[in-house]
Amino acid sequence: MAGHSKWANIKHKKAATDAKRGKVWTRLIKEITVGARMGGADIATNPRLRLAVDKAADANMPKENVTRAIQRGSGSLEGASYEEIRYEGYGINGAAIIVDCMTDNRVRTVAEVRHAFSKFGGNMGTEGSVAFLFQHCGQLLFAPGTDEDALMEAALDAGAEDVLTDEEGGIEVLCPPFEFASVKDALEKAGFKAEVAEIVMKPSTEIVFTGDDAVKMQKLLDALENLDDVQEVYTNAVIDGE
Hints:
Elements: E1 2-3, H1 7-19, H2 21-39, H3 47-58, H4 63-74, E2 83-90, E3 96-103, H5 106-119, E4 123-124, E5 134-142, H6 148-158, E6 162-166, E7 171-175, H7 180-189, E8 196-203, E9 207-209, H8 211-225, E10 230-235, E11 237-239
Helix pairs in contact: 2-3, 2-4, 6-7
């Protein structure tokens, strides 16, 4: 099944993420800490923690940083107590935005998120105002040139729900969130290593932005992503930089 071309967007996001490695580590430490607090310190029985630890390994985070974060989350080390908060809102031309945060100060976080929305042409919505436009799912993205037929067979055998190919040949495998770890493991055993593998809020429809609107929308997304308390930003906007 064909999907909207997204490979350039994915590569851009990955490069931007790599360029902000220190910030990425900070976010992963929060995720590991909260994952351990909610589900325990054993990655074998805690899929959320395992995903965060895998991401930390991909980001070249030192193992001692990971261990300390797990210890803080499980209570064997003192540390800040984070809570998860989701904000929803609208960007340029009404594009939907979800902002997932982890914070030790809810008042500070909501003020910063609201300020970013208002400064760059968006506005915050109420809870549930845009979430219905997204699907919570596991997403694994494979580079153009991957053997589509073999990947599709392996993915469907592993429990994936859908396999999508874009115009550039990139392949996207989707699965239920609770089956993400087993699907990822099965695909790796079959020889398929994803460029990006995570549990996401995937938009059911997309809005393509070009020209000035694309520039404005990107500024808003960058402002939100650069906030210290923000873990992830999801949107149905596709920035066309061509």
